[in-house]
Amino acid sequence: CNDSTRAGRSIASGSRGCAPPSIQVVGPREPEESHRLEAGVKVSFLEGKGYAGGAVYELERDNIAIPDSTGLTRQSGSQRSRGFEFELSAAATDNVSVRATYAFNSAELTDFSELVQLPTGGFVVLDRAGNVPAFAPRHMASVWVTTKLAKGFSVGAGVRCLSDQFIAPD
Questions:
Q1: What is the DSSP string of 74-101?
Q2: Which of 22, 84, 87, 148 sits 20 to 30 Å CA-CA off 52?
Q3: CB neighbour burial string for 88-121, b if at least 16 within 10 angstroms, e if fewer
């Protein structure tokens, strides 16, 4: 939305998707299915040199491969993620621009029972529904600065921060 004649606009989107089942999952394999809803707003300012945007979303995925405590994706389940994202960028000068982002993600396993091998032999099934999925940080933020150089080249540097995240569904 870099058009300086438009102060802002609303956005909304949704999608449904599917993917082949993971070949690593043990047992019955169903195709992965997902649906996503998103709504937000985009605003330009500083005569088109600045931009702000924000959105809220919900993503549900069924029959996804989920890594166990060893990191192997041998089991499947369902997951829901809800959150919001915010972005702010502006041209500090004609050659330098700054971009900052923040995202909040509340993710949970909505249907997942993990088969766990006991040290004494045998197995037990543990209900992990309600747990936070592996590799789903709650907070993500970044700041990026880009400088234009001669002959169409640019150089950028930035930092990306993630909150703690789990490595297994337990």
A1: -EEEEEEEEEEEEEEEEESSSSEEEEEE
A2: 148
A3: bbebeeeeebebbbbbbbebbbeebebeeeeeee
**pLDDT tens, residue order, the chain (170 aa):** 344 445 689 989 999 999 888 777 777 778 889 999 999 999 999 888 999 999 999 999 998 887 766 666 667 889 999 999 999 999 989 899 999 999 999 999 998 887 777 888 888 888 888 888 888 999 999 999 999 998 889 999 999 999 998 877 77
**Cβ(76)–Cβ(62) below 8 Å:** no
**Token pair listed for 61:** 């995925």
Q: 143 with 100: CB under 8 angstroms?
A: yes
Q: 61: Cβ–Cβ under 8 A, 6 or more apart, which residues? A: 32, 33, 34, 78, 79, 80
Tell the residue number behind the tokens 């939305």, with chain if given: 1
Q: Give the Cα separation of 126 and 112 in Å (integer).
A: 9
Query: Which residue from 56, 55, 64 is spatially nearest to 17, judged by alpha carbons?
Result: 64
